[in-house]
Amino acid sequence: MNDLVQANANTIGQFLEDHKCKDVNILDVTQECSWADCFIIATVSSVGHLRGVTHELWGALNELGLEVTNRHKKPAGDGWELIDCGDIIIHLMSSELRDFYSLERLWQKREKEEEQEE
């Protein structure tokens, strides 16, 4: 992950923590993924929290000069919002969906499998 992507990811991660998101995790997926450099995964406490954080995050992303390619007027009400900023993919998830999909485990498993192949 290049320095600019890392700096932007850290800024976004801090923004999410400041807005009461839990367990913010920044995953470097440059070796496993051809379409993104990092995933930022964070847990929201409710659908209302998800909508509020998403709305505020769009302004922060604009200030960083990041283009959101999948902006919605109203975030989904299912407990998972994916925000595509090109090199950075942000996943805001309810704790239930985060546990169910286990994105960290999925991508760490891929990384470990590739290390074993070498």
Q: Any descriptors?
A:
alpha+beta
Terminal Cα span:
21 Å
Q: How does the major sheet shape up?
A: 4 strands, mixed
Order of helices and strands: HEEHEEHH
Helix/sheet category: alpha+beta
Helix count equals 4
Global Rg: 14 Å
Low-confidence stretches: none
Averaged pLDDT, please?
89
In percent terms, what proportion of residues is strand? Answer: 15-25%
DSSP strand count: 4
Shape: globular
Strand order in the largest sheet: 1-2-4-3
Portion of residues in helices?
40-55%
Short description:
With 118 residues, the chain is α+β, with helices and mostly antiparallel strands. The chain has helices spanning 3-18, 47-63, 95-101, 103-117; strands spanning 22-28, 38-44, 80-84, 88-94. The longest helix is centred in the middle third of the chain and has 17 residues, at 47-63.
Can you give a write-up of this model?
- 47% of the residues lie in helices and 22% in strands.
- It is an alpha+beta fold.
- A four-stranded mixed β-sheet has the order 1-2-4-3, with helices on both faces.
- A hairpin with a 3-residue loop joins strand 3 and strand 4.
- The chain is globular, with a radius of gyration of 14 Å.
- The model has no long low-confidence stretch (mean pLDDT 89).
